[in-house]
Amino acid sequence: MGTFETNAPIIFQTINIHTMQDQSESQPQFGKYDLIAELSKCFPNDNSSTIVGIGDDASVIDTDGNQTVSSTKVFIEDVHFDLTYVPLKHLGYKVITVAVTDILGMNAIPTQVTVNVAVSNRFDLKAVNELLAGMEACCETVHVDVVGLDLSTSRKDLIITVTAIGECEPARLVTRKGASENELVCVSGDFAAAYAGLLLLEREKKVFEVNPSTQPDFSGKDYLLRRQLMPEPRLDIVEALRREDILPTAMCAIPDGIAAAIMQICRASDKGCAVFEEKLPLTELAFTTLKDLDIVHTVAALNGGDDYELMFTIRQADFEKIKNVENVSIIGYIKEPSAGYKLITGDNVQVDIQAQGFRN
Amino acid sequence: MGTFETNAPIIFQTINIHTMQDQSESQPQFGKYDLIAELSKCFPNDNSSTIVGIGDDASVIDTDGNQTVSSTKVFIEDVHFDLTYVPLKHLGYKVITVAVTDILGMNAIPTQVTVNVAVSNRFDLKAVNELLAGMEACCETVHVDVVGLDLSTSRKDLIITVTAIGECEPARLVTRKGASENELVCVSGDFAAAYAGLLLLEREKKVFEVNPSTQPDFSGKDYLLRRQLMPEPRLDIVEALRREDILPTAMCAIPDGIAAAIMQICRASDKGCAVFEEKLPLTELAFTTLKDLDIVHTVAALNGGDDYELMFTIRQADFEKIKNVENVSIIGYIKEPSAGYKLITGDNVQVDIQAQGFRN
Fold it and tell me: What DSSP line would sit under A128-158, residue for residue?
């Protein structure tokens, strides 16, 4: 780290930071996940209670018995959500799902959340109450307590921070690292519906901007909108894995699509994988809607994001047991590292899996 | 909470939130702390592991042995810091101090932090590295691990979120609630220096805006600038209290001045207090600088903020022991609730203590 000059003179500056664009030639292009890995190197972990540090869904701290799992998520208006079409109650529900999913992605049980809300004078008390009501509704579904609430001022945008805390018996904790060759890659739920919902909302927003007197008609698309606006935390999956006595070998949340998730597990486990296109779980509604929108459904499932499902790898010996867990699909298997990350298409062609945030 | 209508139609809106100003007549004026208390009512705590919920410096979770203490802080550019004069390394150091101080304010030992940084393309990798280097420097001084790091995009401003986690034996944990009549009110360190530093920086910023070719001269004011830009976490105080076997009866961090801190303890404990103006610890430098700036030094100590010291109440029986703890001042004592919150001035006049964020 080097020395920290506490008495260095304070330099006033009007522009004290360079733009990323200006320096694009002089520095390597990092993806988000590469950058986090790179920056993490300056943070050595010394405390004996630190079990899992940077680079997984959540951090894990030993507490003389169960382990405490925690993860913090930040949501910024017009970066992570658009209040033109996102109701505040739904937004409150979703931010809890997103934060809690990181705990579930470690095979842990979420128990508490803390919430920080930064608002400008665009928002009144009723608006804040709507947001918190949505949060509480989601917390109730997964039996989580809101144990911290802080308010602050923002210049204009709504900024929401949620820290989720959970607990796990040490023997049940599952990180991204631990997948072995020939193990099965499982995912919960279905994919690309949330992305299709986003595309519909964004399309209708453009119509609305031209003619604000119209309101969109989403009839028949309820499932897609609900997947985008109010995804459910998959506590049921983590509970079912316990009930069936299945201990995944590696596990992670799926916030950014199947591709990023499988790459996280394979990288952390130093393995390759094969994922079968025809095994990707999509609803008929997502499939037909994406077709109408001229979007390749496989790309939407791999890279669309916002699904907040879980991915985990299991031993072949657990194949019979996993059939007892509803809403789980086996989409592929783990291979040797040199196999790379491959999608096997319907006509048996191998395609490299790619994901935003990774350098290829 | 009522039912949550998942299938409610999505309403598109250009302005979907009212301004606080427009409604100022129709709704009561809440201070920040009142508002948090009001909003907290919709969050019942059900999990048996929840020991302390909303309304203290940090939340506390029981983990079959030690208790896990956690607190999340959000820092927004131009709301909480000004990059015209705050170097990124100092900023990194300060945000860790602020977050960790909430853990210390529960008499707990900080052990881990997680960090989220949202940056726009105004910031390059070097800038992010500076920020993280400052964080790491502060973490090193208090032996804390950075166990989580997430990056995201902001539209323009730098937004930093720090979650601090700590641990405490249940018998050592001290909340804001627990002060009894005739107990002594203690504070660590000195006050108003950070506020004086802020005033100097803001004054010179105005000069700089008129004439950007000049650089300010802060010679002789180093201590004030350091208190504002790079405050130190008071781990030494929490360690000294353990060493001297002093268990405070109530305790809190002092982010917003002595007034807000004493009111938090008195409200939570349902007590009144008397604070002696002449006992407020100020350095000569802060005193003279504030005088030059035409600021009443007592007001700066009570309401200036940014000190990040600790306040705690102790039994009179611990009076001899507390003398062995360096950098602690006794500034007053706890009274019956009807006594209110009083400042006793040098000429023995009683003045009501007031603080921003509280309804009077």
Answer: HHHHHHHHHHHHHHTT-EEEEEEEEE-SSS-
